[in-house]
Amino acid sequence: MKDILLITNFWHFECEKSSSRYLHLANILSRHGYGLEVVTSTFYHRVKKVREFSKDFLTSFPYKVTLINEPPYSHNISLRRLHSHKIFARNVISYLSQRKRPDLILVVIPSTYLAENVVKFANNHRIPVVLDIQDLWPEAFQMAFRIPLISDICFAPLKKLADEAYKNADYITAVSQTYVERGMSVNKKSKQGTAIYLGADFDHVQSIVRKSHVNKDPNEFWVSYIGSLGHSYNIKMVINALAILKYKGIVNIKFQIFGNGVLEDEFRYYAKQRGVDAEFWGHRQYDEMIPYLAASEIAVNPIVGKSVASIINKVCDYATAGVPVVNDQNSDEYRNLLEKYHAGLNCENNNAQQFADAIMKLYQNESLRRQMKEGALRLAREKFDRDKTYLLFVDVIENILSSYSK
Predict the structure, then answer these.
(1) Where are the alpha helices (DSSP H) in 248-382?
(2) pLDDT digits (tens, 9 = 90+) for 384-396
C-alpha cells in the first residue's frame, strides 16, 4: 500500500463545511487503496478558531489525520497571518523530518511558505511531490494593495517563494487551466500540468434539490448570489443593475444573497438606499442554501476587474444547481465555459447597464432560461462533477509513482 501525504493549511472537516475539495479528494484516494495521511492545521481559518477535536473524532476517518500547531490570527490580510503560516510551515517540516518517508506528497498552495518548504524537503529526500494550486499568492494580496511599484516590492519575497515551489514541483495540478499555466511558466521538471476544477458533488446536490421544497412566491423572480461579502465582489454593481430594472417597471425581482463578510452592512444599506428588494440570509449551511439557489431564475457572478480569481467555488455550485449565470468576471477561462456550454451571459466588467440588460434578456425569455439551465447542468456533469474529475488526481499520482519506480 502506497503511503501518500496530503498537506494543506486549509482543510475542512465535514462538520465544518460539507463541500470541500480536499475532503472529497481524501475520500477518493482512500477508496483507491492508498495509505493516506492528511496533515493540516490546528487553526481553522474560516472562522478564526483553534480546533478542539477529541482523539476519537480524529481517528474516525479511513485515513490518518494529523493536526500541526499554527498560531491563530484575526484578519485574512495581515502580517500576523503571514507569520502564522510561516510557523505552520516550519512545524510541518519538523514533523516530516521525524516521520517515515512517504511514497508521494501532495501539497497545496497557498500558503506559499508551506508549499516552498515542503517542495524543498521533498526534493532533498527524493520524494515525488505534486503541487495543487488553489489560489494565486501573492497575486491575491496584491489585488487588495494595488500600489504601483510599491506593492511589487513588498510582495516580491512571497512571489519568490511561490516561484520556487512551482519551479521544483514534480507535477502541477490546479483549480483552473489559468492557474496551471501560472505554475508551469516557471516549472522545470514537468512537461505539462493538469487542471482539476474545484467542482461539486453533483449527485449529492441533485439529491438535495429533488427532496427539498422551497416556499417561493410564484410571482417573484429570484436573482441569487452566494459567497463572501467583501472587497472582491461587486455587489453594489448588481444592486445598481436591479435598480435600473426597477426604474423600468420591473418590480418583482428579489435579490437573494447568501454569505457574510466585512461589507455586509454597507451592501444592506446600499440596497435599501437604491430601493432594491434584497434579502440577506447570512451564512447558511451548504445543504440548506442549495435548494434556494436551485429555485432561483438567475445566479450572478460579479467580481471586481482586478481580481485574479479563475474557476471558483460559486460558479461550480451555480452550474451544479442548474442555474443560468449573468457574469462580469474577466476570467477568459470561465467566460469561455459559459459560452461553450450555453450556460449564461457574459457582460463587460462593472457595467451595470449591460448587466441589467442581460438580466432583462433572461427575465423576458423563459425558453432561454430553460436552455441555459440544461447547459449549466451539462457543464456541471462534464467539468465540475468531483466523483469523475477528481479521478484525474489518481491518474497523476499513479503516473508519478510509476515513473519514480523505474
Answers:
(1) 264-274, 286-294, 313-320, 332-340, 352-364, 366-379
(2) 999 999 999 999 9
